[in-house]
Design brief:
Layout: H1 2-7, H2 30-34, H3 38-46, H4 49-85, H5 92-96, H6 114-133, H7 141-161, H8 169-177, H9 198-204
Length: 228
């Protein structure tokens, strides 16, 4: 636990408030206070010091878990890539036996070839780097999926070390780090094949969800040249 609290100091791209810390009203900037309504002010003033201290500890612990999960995620992606390179062909079962790629939408597993994995590694590295240099929301569908894999890895760390994280830590991160959760539909059996219905996607305002479109940048975003 001490290790996580220490390494978490390097995760400067997200504030402790974004990770669940409940600050005092007087610690907010004038601009932040101006955005609060009467109910918000009343709620903040009702928070006990004990609860505030616990939220600070849990937020710091979460930063460490995110940092450690980032390292494990990239390391295991390299292992996945190295393992798949040894195969003459790649099928769904091969993907199911990987560390990270098995967390991607299983309905598309037959399309996860070496070229795809290389691009996914690059987009995941770009995503984890943003947590240290300054967070910006995912640049493409593939990066949304990489972020989802990262949060899955945080859950593994939490379970392995019985970390005292806030009960709603994942929901808090999803709200702070994702633009939306549309890519979750790729995991739902009831929506199988929706990514091929271009008209439906346009009507619902979704980004293109076919595998070949996963690395296309969102309107106001950019992606590393390698993945284009």
């Amino acid at each position: 636990m001490e290790h996580l609290l220490q390494v978490g100091e390097g995760l400067a791209g997200l504030s402790l408030e974004q990770l669940g810390f409940e600050p005092r009203l007087e610690d907010l900037t004038a601009e932040q206070r101006s955005m609060l309504g009467p109910d918000d002010v009343e709620w903040m003033e009702s928070i006990t010091q004990e609860r505030r201290d616990r939220s600070l500890f849990q937020a710091k612990l979460l930063t460490g878990a995110l940092w450690e999960a980032s390292i494990i995620l990239i390391d295991q992606l390299f292992e996945d890539l190295a393992g798949l390179r040894k195969l003459q062909s790649i099928d769904r079962e091969d993907i199911a036996n990987t560390f990270v790629l098995s967390w991607l939408p299983p309905g598309q597993a037959h399309k996860y070839d070496i070229g795809f994995v290389q691009r996914f590694v690059v987009i995941a590295v770009d995503m984890t780097g943003a947590m240290a240099r300054g967070w910006s929301r995912p640049s493409c569908v593939a990066q949304e999926l990489a972020l989802r894999c990262l949060l899955d890895q945080v859950e593994v760390i939490q379970d392995s070390y019985d970390l005292d994280l806030a009960d709603d830590w994942r929901g808090t991160l999803e709200e702070q780090m994702f633009e939306d959760m549309d890519s979750d539909l790729l995991y739902q059996n009831a929506m199988d094949g929706f990514e091929n219905d271009v008209e439906l996607n346009l009507q619902l305002g979704f980004a293109p969800m076919n595998v070949q479109d996963w690395f296309e940048p969102f309107n106001d975003a950019s992606v590393p040249p390698f993945v284009r």
